[in-house]
Specification:
- The protein is mostly helical and 95 residues long.
- It has one domain (2-91): lambda repressor-like DNA-binding domains (434 Repressor (Amino-terminal Domain)).
- The chain contains 5 helices and 2 strands, in the order H-E-E-H-H-H-H.
- It has a two-stranded antiparallel ribbon.
- Strand 1 (17-21) and strand 2 (27-31) form a beta hairpin.
- Helix 2 packs across helix 5 (77-91) and helix 3 (51-58) packs across helix 4.
- It is globular.
- The relative contact order is 0.13.
Length: 95
């Protein structure tokens, strides 16, 4: 049983993709790192915030945000969902 847990822990591909719907409504698997990159860039563009300002408002380090925005790492699931939700609110006209 211990070997199975170890294999799952190091299988990055297992949790690296998300199922989304395209604009035509068809489902598509996309890399989470690409989604988070686009969302962070969109949030920064829409709000006019710098990386440092956005990182400070999120309570994270500037380097962490830089790594997420450049696809070098991905946030925890809770943070990912929060960023996705905020970007979706902005896309629908929220502030």
């Amino acid at each position: 049983m211990g070997n199975n847990i170890k294999k799952m822990r190091y299988n990055k591909d297992l949790f690296s993709r998300a199922l989304i719907r395209t604009s035509s409504g068809r489902p598509k698997f996309v890399l989470i790192s690409k989604l988070i990159t686009k969302d962070i860039q969109y949030i920064r563009k829409r709000t006019g915030m710098s990386k440092a300002e956005l990182a400070r408002s999120m309570g994270i380090g500037r380097r962490t945000l830089y790594n997420w925005e450049n696809g070098k790492s991905t946030p925890r699931v809770e943070v990912f969902l929060t960023i996705r939700g905020y970007a979706d609110i902005l896309r629908k006209g929220g502030k």
